[in-house]
């Protein structure tokens, strides 16, 4: 049974790095608090035992809030502060129909009194069902505009055009890029590394591998920048959920370059491992095998995984454990970046019914 000590909350422990922490905080732009922080680090005892590999810990960023759950809200805190400082009354962003980022943006805007406009990519043949995040976009009061995959390729230009039109109509607008993944949103995860660094200082044994889903690059960029500034040489694995590893690396490098130009700070020297051998059919496409592994992980941890993001990342971790990458003495921190609402938009018919009961659940 998991006792109270299985939930690790941060307390100041990295005394030797205190000066570096202060330097990080000095660099930070203005921030509007939205997330419920800090999020706990949880030891996944049953999952670790069932999968027979390393000790698996879960950083629970699915607990940053309810409607604002997930990693995106950390980045949005900086974008909404900037939007307010710029005098905007409208925010504009983009994503897929089931975008966690777009949902979080809509609800953050509603909470803070902004209008929100979402440009959502609709793939050919994709049904418009009011379920999951797509329903929540509307419940959050967002204006939803559907765009084609071809238009998606020009999403930054489209958002700029919408912003210009809104400004001409008396609504100054702030554009938030895909996933809030830029040099501004990155700071949300620079701060998050301070949380995690204090928590992992209490984990026995060697430093863990930090395993997370990677897509638009902002989370990875923040994790890398943060640990580099904390002088913590920790293994980081960015598990792509759709793009080639090289593309994710390019996105992260671009964010770092933008942040460096804005702050005058040097580029991080920390090493990040980018992997793309678990993307399956690509972004948003999942197989029965992947959903089965995700379902098993949920039944062993009591958490909900997003088949597009955290689900694929946990599948990647499961496969890497099976391949012998880790030993029983290793530690892995799986960064749960949220997205549970998106699971409601996937068809688990047959998988749940066919799944055997998890060990100890009788």
Care to describe what's here?
The structure is a single chain. The protein is an alpha/beta fold. The protein has two domains: 237 residues, Rossmann fold, CATH 3.40.50.1100; 109 residues, 3-Layer(aba) Sandwich (Rossmann fold), CATH 3.40.50.1100. The chain is 40% helix and 15% strand. The strands form two sheets. Strands 1-2-3-11-8-9-10 form a seven-stranded mixed sheet, sandwiched between helices. Strands 6-5-4-7 form a four-stranded parallel sheet, sandwiched between helices. α3 packs across α8, α4 runs parallel beside α5 and α9 packs across α10. The two termini are 15 Å apart.
Keywords:
single chain, 362 residues, seven-stranded mixed beta sheet, Rossmann fold, alpha/beta, 2 domains
């Amino acid at each position: 049974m998991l006792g109270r000590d299985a939930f690790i909350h941060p307390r100041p422990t990295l005394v030797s790095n205190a000066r570096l922490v202060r330097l990080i905080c000095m660099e930070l732009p203005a921030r509007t608090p939205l997330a419920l922080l800090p999020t706990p680090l949880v030891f996944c005892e049953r999952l670790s035992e069932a999968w027979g590999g390393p000790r698996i810990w879960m950083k629970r960023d699915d607990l940053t809030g309810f409607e604002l759950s997930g990693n995106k809200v950390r980045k949005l805190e900086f974008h909404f502060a900037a939007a307010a400082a710029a005098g905007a009354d409208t925010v504009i962003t983009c994503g897929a129909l089931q975008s966690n980022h777009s949902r979080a943006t809509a609800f953050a805007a509603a909470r803070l009194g902004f209008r929100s406009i979402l440009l959502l990519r609709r793939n050919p043949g994709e049904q418009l069902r009011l379920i999951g995040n797509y329903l929540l976009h509307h419940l959050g009061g967002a204006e939803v505009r559907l765009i084609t995959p071809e238009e998606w390729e020009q999403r930054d230009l489209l958002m700029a055009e919408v912003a210009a039109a809104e400004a001409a109509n008396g609504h100054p607008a702030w554009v938030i890029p895909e996933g809030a993944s830029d040099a501004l949103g990155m700071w949300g995860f620079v701060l998050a590394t301070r949380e995690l660094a204090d928590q992992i200082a209490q984990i026995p044994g060697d430093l863990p591998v930090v395993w997370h889903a990677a897509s638009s690059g902002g989370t990875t960029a923040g994790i890398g920048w943060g640990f580099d500034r904390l002088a913590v040489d920790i293994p980081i694995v960015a598990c792509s959920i759709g793009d080639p590893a090289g593309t994710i690396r390019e996105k992260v490098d671009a964010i770092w370059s933008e942040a460096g130009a804005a702050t005058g700070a040097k580029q991080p020297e920390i090493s990040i491992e980018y992997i793309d051998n678990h993307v399956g059919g690509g972004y948003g496409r999942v197989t029965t095998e992947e959903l089965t592994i995700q379902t098993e992980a949920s039944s062993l941890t009591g958490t909900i995984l997003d088949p597009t993001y955290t689900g694929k990342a946990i599948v990647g971790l499961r496969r890497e454990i099976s391949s012998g990458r880790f030993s029983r003495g290793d530690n892995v921190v799986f960064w749960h970046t949220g997205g549970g609402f998106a699971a409601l938009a996937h068809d688990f018919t047959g998988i749940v019914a066919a799944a055997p009961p998890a060990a100890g659940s009788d």
